[in-house]
Amino acid sequence: MRIQKKLLSLLTISIVLMNTTACSQRISALNDTLTLAFIGDKDTVLSTQQVNDIPYASIYAKIDDVPQAFIVLALAELPFTLNQQPTPAVKELKWLSADKAMLVTVNGRLVKTHNLLTGDLVAVESQQPDPLLLGLHLDTTPKTWTRTIDWQPGYHFGYKVNSHFDFIATETILINETPTQALHYLESVVVDNLNIQYQNEFWLVPETGHVIKSRQKIAPNQPFIEMTLLKSFAS
To answer: Which residue has the higher pLDDT, 80 or 176?
Structure first.
């Protein structure tokens, strides 16, 4: 129970005042700390009106069976860890918790975490762009991807990870209480050096390929993190 409460605390977000030009969604309009979720035994669920009334991008996030928390975007910056040409449409979105835990995503892909109790993804490196970033829904997008990942605890650096993507089905999922059509893709992941396999899942907007829901591991032997995009970041 103590570990569960700590995990909840790590994913329970407050909007933190930040004075930086890199953050295009300024938080200075609010008080020093505005708690948006409460630690408890049930999922945090906000109404559509509540989500829309908050002028910041937001997600639901949960670790394995821990109840979900509502999290607000803190920063949006050009990526530094992915080997790709930065463009205005490519941003690292940093979702920061009250006690400084952080989830970092690029189009829904977790590319870094900080201060999670279970362990952290330190870096993702590849000579190839992530198919999620290219638009997995496009016929021209490769359906395989090779990268290396670093994670902690321990000294896990430079592990080669191979992925293969398969289209599952067009499904209707609930996003912010609204039935939403999405393309469901399965990412089969293999870490040969550790003889480990697992599967990530992504749900994409059919027209754009933007990820609106995912269930993914940050590293082998780490728990799954599920994220649902409630309100998109507007650059």
So the answer is: 176
